Prior knowledge:
Residues 1-5 have low confidence and may be disordered. The longest helix has 16 residues, at 9-24. Helix content is 48%, strand content 11%. It is built from seven helices and four strands. It is α+β, with helices and mostly antiparallel strands and 165 residues long. Helix 1 runs antiparallel to helix 2 (31-42). It has one domain (9-163).
Amino acid sequence: MSSENKYSPDRDDVIYAVYLTLHAARTLFPQKTLRVAISELMYADPFAWRAVGITRAALDAYLQAGKKRIKGIQRAHLTDRKEMVDHVLDRDEPLSQEALFSYWRETDRSVISLTSENLKNSLGNWIPFDNREAKYFPPAAIGFKFRDVFEGNLLRQLAEQLSGE
C-alpha cells in the first residue's frame, strides 16, 4: 500500500472492528493509549481534522506569503480529542458503525491557525468556510496540504469578502 491514505469503505469496516475490540478492552489500557489508537485509525479517513475555518492571523500570514511556503500554521481542533474518545468509549454499549463515523466525522473539525494561537487556545472569532466535502486542507503525511490553486484561491476569496464588509 502506498504511504498516501486512500479512502476505502472496507477500511471503515476494519476501523469499526478495531473500535469494538478497544471498547471491549477499554478498562485494560490507559486513556492516552486508547486516544492515540483511535485517533491514528481515524486519521486515515478523508474527513480527518476537516478544516471548517481560519483565524484572521493565519489568513493574513497566507496572504502575505503569497505562493511561498510558510511555517507556523496548523490545524486547531474545535473539540478536544480526549472528549471525542471519551464519547465513543465511555459507554456501556459501543456505538453502531454508522453512529461512530457520523459522530467522528462531524466532531473532528479544525480551524487553520497560527501555531501560537493553537498553543494558547485563542482562536478568537475565526472565519468559517464551507468544507463539507473535505476538499480543502486535506491531511498529508504530517500536517495538511496547501495548494495555491485550491486553498490559495479559497483564502483570496475569503479576504475579498472580508474587505467588502
